[in-house]
Amino acid sequence: MSVFERNPYEDQHGLSTIESEVLWEYAKLLEHVKELSSRVKEMSEEPEQALVSQLRGLERKMGLVLTLFRASVWAVINDQQGLESGSEGG
Q: Which family does the UniProt entry place this protein in (predicted)?
């Protein structure tokens, strides 16, 4: 029987009703924390490979952006040098 269905402390003669209910809430909280811990552990192990794969794709795209940026800067520099040499020769 699940701790969520029945209070395991209600038959304890040394506890008042409020004490057994408080202990029951702590027991339910403990089960939630265990479940949360288990899920966090699963999540921390699994997506690592997926994240690495996504980051590799992003790295390739950023490399392409850097290459295009360098080509654009090179084109601007060449255009400026062409304008300067054209104005000096004329």
A: Belongs to the DASH complex DAD3 family.
Name the phi and psi angles at 4, rounded to 5. Answer: -80, -20
Q: Is the CA virtual torsion 61, 67, 73, 78 positive or negative?
A: negative
For 23, residues 6+ apart whose C-beta sits below 8 A from its C-beta are: 9, 15
Residues 67 and 87 placed together within one structural domain of the fold: yes
Return d(Cα 75, Cα 90) in angstroms, integer: 22
Over residues 29-42, the pLDDT tens digits come to: 999 999 999 999 88
Residues 68, 28 share a domain: no
54-to-26, 47, 49, 58, 65 alpha-carbon distances in Å: 41, 10, 9, 6, 17
* Structural domain that includes position 6: 1-45
Contacts with 46 (C-beta within 8 Å, 6 or more apart), sequence order:
none
Q: How confident is the model at residue 65 (pLDDT cuts 50, 70, 90)?
A: very high
